[in-house]
Design goal:
12 strands, about 425 residues, binds adenosine-5'-diphosphate, binds magnesium ion, alpha+beta, single chain, 5-stranded mixed sheet
Length: about 425
């Protein structure tokens, strides 16, 4: 509004009307202009908002994809870790377990939930000065490659482990912790011991064979002289008893030497195609006659497959196997019982089973059964079963035992058909 005081009266009258209109027009134009700008700005904003939205959506999608990819990779790595047969344990900088795979659970007999978050020493057992462990690597930054150590098992027996360790870093090279990969070496150690045992036995066998040869001659001499001594004595001479003792002792020594020689002599098989049922029955019938004369309290039962069962064996040697098993079975039943003999086909094999209802065997005895000279009998040689095994294995077969103390024993012999 004009406040010009010099303006004439008529002007003054007319003035306000024209001024108001002009002002109004101006304002209107200004208003329209402003509105237009606002609208433009709004539209621009809207457009920007739209592009931002699209960008956001794209970023989101990328993020989702990269998350999925990360998930996939980490799942993949997890699957690998869980499928590994080697145990894997990872510790953080403080020495607490952050990863413990399935194989580690199995080898150490401890569940993942028992291990995660716990100090390494608690899970893997402490080593003096943190040696031989992921902790050593954590302290020194040095990897340990293909080492061997022993850990106590929960039951106290040692658990041999082969292991390697290394430092774990992130992509920038910062140390995050240490990793240890380990394997159970029990089976390897067992095989090593078995190889050692076989070597010792072979050396022992060679020596025994030489000694047995050397013993045989003087034994023959003693037997002859004892017989000469006895010849001049009256039947009721008390010294005769002593001479008989010498003869008995010599006989026993001779039997030991003979079985030792049988055991150590290299086996040469002279095989024929036979009907196993017939071969077994022949030995059993022969044994049974002897049994009825010496022991009235052992019953023999037979369970043979009907019809012939062909296989190739050295009849003489295989009869010795049958006889040894029948003898052991009878000796295991001092109070009497049932001796069972079975012959049956087994996929790809023929099977002979000789069972008794006797004293049975403890797991400790079963573990030593096939060790030369192992015997629980006062007059045993401990060479029966090792000889059986040697003969059966020379035939390409296998022998195994099932036994329970107080219940009885079954020996199974498998021969290739
Ligand atoms: P030996 O008969 O001279 O003792 P073996 O090698 O034939 O030698 O047997 C070794 C040991 O295995 C026996 O002393 C006995 O302790 C055990 N054994 C073998 N067969 C049986 C069986 N059927 N029942 C129980 N124990 C057995
Ligand atoms: Mg025996």
């Amino acid at each position: 509004m004009s406040t010009n005081g010099e303006a004439p009266e008529h002007h003054l009258r007319l003035g306000p009307t024209s001024t108001t209109l002009e002002d109004f027009t101006d304002s209107y134009i200004l208003f329209r202009e402003t509105t237009r700008r606002y609208r433009e700005a709004y539209e621009q904003l809207e457009a920007q908002f739209e592009t931002l939205n699209i960008k956001l959506e794209e970023t989101n999608q990328e993020l989702r994809k990269s998350l999925e990819e990360k998930d996939r990779v980490s799942n993949y790595l997890n699957n690998i870790l869980e499928s590994m047969t080697g145990g894997v344990i990872v510790v953080d900088l403080g020495g607490a377990v952050t990863l413990f795979n399935q194989a580690a659970e199995q080898i150490l007999g401890r569940s993942q939930s028992e291990a995660l978050g716990r100090p390494y020493e608690e899970v893997m057992g402490a080593a003096p000065g943190r040696q031989d462990s992921a902790l050593y690597t954590l302290d020194t930054g040095t990897s340990l490659i293909n080492r061997v150590k022993e850990m106590p098992r929960p039951d106290g027996r040692p658990l041999p482990l082969g292991f390697s360790t290394s430092v774990v870093r992130d992509e920038s090279g910062k140390v995050l912790g240490a990793l240890e990969v380990f394997n159970d070496l029990t089976e390897v150690k067992r095989l090593e011991a078995e190889v050692q045992r076989v070597r010792t036995l072979a050396a022992l066998g060679e020596m025994a064979a030489t000694v047995a040869h050397e013993i045989r001659n003087p034994l023959g001499g003693i037997a002859t002289f004892a017989a000469l001594l006895g010849r001049g004595m009256e039947a009721d001479d008390p010294r005769r008893r002593l001479v008989n003792k010498i003869t008995e002792g010599v006989g026993r020594l001779n039997r030991i030497v003979s079985s030792l020689l049988t055991y150590t002599r290299p086996l040469r098989l002279n095989t024929h195609e036979v009907n196993l049922v017939e071969l077994v029955e022949e030995s059993v019938a022969f044994f049974e006659i002897d049994l009825e004369r010496s022991r009235g309290n052992v019953k023999v039962t037979r369970d043979y497959v009907p019809g012939p069962l062909a296989c190739r064996v050295d009849t003489e040697q295989f009869q010795q196997v049958i006889l040894n098993l029948l003898q052991n079975a009878t000796q295991a039943m001092p109070e009497g019982g049932t001796l069972s003999v079975a012959v049956a086909p087994d996929p790809g094999h023929v099977m002979l089973c000789i069972g008794d209802t006797g004293i049975g065997m403890s797991p400790e005895v079963q573990a030593k059964l096939f060790t030369p000279f192992f015997t629980t009998k006062e007059d045993g040689t401990g060479l029966g079963l090792v000889t059986c095994r040697k003969i059966v294995e020379a035939h390409g077969g296998r022998i195994r035992v099932e036994s329970a103390p107080g219940t009885g024993t079954r020996f199974y012999v498998y021969l290739p058909q």
